[in-house]
């Protein structure tokens, strides 16, 4: 209770009903691909909406380019823009971290101790990269041949490792957890192998793909198409191998051998170079919130992307509980569903039953320089091709689409609410 003023000589006690610093019609958590895209679409589809984005970063990255950066196709600077330059016009940018959600009060709490209320909340903070989950990784990344394209600061070292490799063993890992850009561990392996093949040293390099998964790719047609690629480079595929430790000084990678998702044995592999795809998870502030499901992801309906408990909350992008591949292409299909359902909820009091996300994901699998297999698929791993061609085939045209056209579509299409 706070005494705010005196009327006719008497103290009038007034309850502060809204203990927050600001209020917004649409509050978005996260200024990555999903957050900027949905903000731009709301701006285009509504007349002067009140939209705010909570995002602490000064820089916005086009992360799909990091594979090319690591392979030396582009300088890494091409993958970034200042956050202020990608924020949609007239969107309020709250430069802060979210630390807690209070969905029963429609309030979000930030690291600076501020409270922001909302009518509708869109949760899109992306995925958390857990470098510390593998002992020996975080403290040694960037040294001893230990590299990863999953960090902007590390992609130059990936390129250095590829170029310095003349003989020996190169390991490429894929974790047991969910992770963004499911094809990236293979893409950088194929580009590395093609580099070594062009330099006539591939026969002197033992390339191993160590994956915690049980198949090389979940879509049958794409798995079959990758067989000849793996054979061409002489790659030794070791499935059900989950990296659990790196002994950097000894250059040894320690793996759990999995059966039915559980460790049943252990193996050590020496390496001269190891490209690590680190374990990932839902951000901690999501895991520890009322919004999370049992696994820590934002608990949403997989078709409508509406929260299963709080109808004025939606989630898209990597932090949601939807069982699709975590890709930017998924966001491109999710954003119109979320925007349409929010507008329908705002104007009609209910979501639009005709709007549904089918789990679409796209994985442009770079299989070498000027070679790419375009995998597009839904929740059930059915192929959903965008082009009237056999996409389960290496094509130069698809490589140039990935390299030259998709970045333009991202910066000038998705982030502008046009695609």
From TrEMBL:
One record GO biological process: sulfide oxidation, using sulfide:quinone oxidoreductase
Cofactor: FAD
Superkingdom field: Bacteria
UniProt GO MF annotations: FAD binding; quinone binding; sulfide:quinone oxidoreductase activity
Transmembrane segments: none
Gene3D superfamilies xrefs: FAD/NAD(P)-binding domain
InterPro entries, alphabetized: FAD/NAD-bd_sf (IPR036188), FAD/NAD-binding_dom (IPR023753), Sulphide_quinone_reductase (IPR015904)
Occurrences of domain FAD/NAD(P)-binding (ranges): 25-143
Keywords, in A-Z order: FAD, Flavoprotein, Oxidoreductase, Quinone, Transit peptide
Name of a matching Pfam family: Pyr_redox_2
PANTHER family: SULFIDE:QUINONE OXIDOREDUCTASE, SULFIDE:QUINONE OXIDOREDUCTASE, MITOCHONDRIAL
The protein's name: Pyridine nucleotide-disulfide oxidoreductase
Naturally occurring in which organism (per UniProt): Rhodohalobacter barkolensis
């Amino acid at each position: 209770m706070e005494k705010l003023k005196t009327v006719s000589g008497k103290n009038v006690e007034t309850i502060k009903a809204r203990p927050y610093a600001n209020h917004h019609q649409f509050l978005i958590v996260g200024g990555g691909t999903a957050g900027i895209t949905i903000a731009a679409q709301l701006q285009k589809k509504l007349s002067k909406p009140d939209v705010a984005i909570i995002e602490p970063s000064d820089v916005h990255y086009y992360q799909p380019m990091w594979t090319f950066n690591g392979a030396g196709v582009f300088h890494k600077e091409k993958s970034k823009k200042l956050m202020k330059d990608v924020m949609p016009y007239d969107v309020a940018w709250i430069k802060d971290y979210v630390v807690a959600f209070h969905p029963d009060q429609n309030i979000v709490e930030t690291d600076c101790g501020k409270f922001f209320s909302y009518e509708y909340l869109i949760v899109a903070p992306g995925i958390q990269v857990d470098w510390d989950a593998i002992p020996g990784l975080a403290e040694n990344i960037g040294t001893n041949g230990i590299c990863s394209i999953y960090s902007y600061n590390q992609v130059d070292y990936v390129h250095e490792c590829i170029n310095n490799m003349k003989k020996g063993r190169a390991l490429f890992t894929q974790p047991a957890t969910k992770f963004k850009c499911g094809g990236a561990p293979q893409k950088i392996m194929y580009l590395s192998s093609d580099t070594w093949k062009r330099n006539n040293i591939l026969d002197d390099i033992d390339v191993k793909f160590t994956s915690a998964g049980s198949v090389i790719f979940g879509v049958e047609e794409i798995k079959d198409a990758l067989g000849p690629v793996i054979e061409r480079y002489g790659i030794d595929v070791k499935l059900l191998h989950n990296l659990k430790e790196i002994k950097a000084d000894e250059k040894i990678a320690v793996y759990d051998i999995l059966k039915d998702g559980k460790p049943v044995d252990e193996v050590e592999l020496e390496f001269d170079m190891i490209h690590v795809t680190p374990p990932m998870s839902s951000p901690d502030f999501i895991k520890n919130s009322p919004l999370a499901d049992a696994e820590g992801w934002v608990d949403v309906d997989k078709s409508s992307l509406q929260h299963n408990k709080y109808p004025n909350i939606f989630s898209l992008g990597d932090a949601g509980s939807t069982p699709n591949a975590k890709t930017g292409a998924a966001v491109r299909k999710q954003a119109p569903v979320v925007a349409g359902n929010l507008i329908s909820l705002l104007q009609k009091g209910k979501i639009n039953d005709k709007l549904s996300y089918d789990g679409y994901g796209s994985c442009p699998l770079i299989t070498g320089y000027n070679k790419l297999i375009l995998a597009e698929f839904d929740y059930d791993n059915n192929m959903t091709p965008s082009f009237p061609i056999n996409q389960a085939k290496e094509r130069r045209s698809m490589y140039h689409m990935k390299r030259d056209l998709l970045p333009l579509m991202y910066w000038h299409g998705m982030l502008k609410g046009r695609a």
